[in-house]
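Need the bound structure for zinc ion, inputs here:
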Amino acid sequence: MNSSFLLSCLIGLTLTLTACSEPTSPMETNDQHPEQPTEKIIKTDAEWKALLTPTQYRILRKAGTEAPNGATYKAFNAQKSGVYYCAGCQAELFSSKEKFHSGCGWPSFYDPSQAKNVKEKKDISAGMERTEIVCSVCDGHLGHLFHGEGFGTPTDKRYCINGAALLYVPKELPETKEQSAPREEE
Ligand SMILES: [Zn+2]
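Answer from helper R.:
Posting the output first, comments after.
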């Protein structure tokens, strides 16, 4: 056995490990703000399967839920100003302006940034009555909406969203009055 054989084994092992870690990979990010869909996106199950990662497919198309406090949540907490688009159809859903820290283990927003793209549906699964949140452009499942938890946000709502259902694109957003910081240059 020579050293180059050992090296190629190591590279192979690393690639295998990287591929295996896909389901918990951080929320997808992009440098480019996607073009906004102008009409409803309708695809077959096979088309969605081909387009999405297995995790995104399970969440968006099968109303799955990602594990709390996972890699997508850590990535979300580290993200600064930016816009969150639907990972299925790229419609704008939320922005960092409505993001807040709830400590629940999933990305939390108190309001959508594009209300027309975020739809509420009654969900009676799992023996509870909850409000499901779906993307109104592609009908992808995003998460659930909770009211009146006392987080002290302007709406007292918590849009509890699966990070894997979101596509984050960094962007300098206009500062609000409360958050405006002094400019450094004169
Ligand atoms: Zn969508």
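Comments: The two ends are 66 Å apart (CA to CA). Residues 86, 88-89, 91, 135, 137-138, 140 surround zinc ion (CB under 6 Å).
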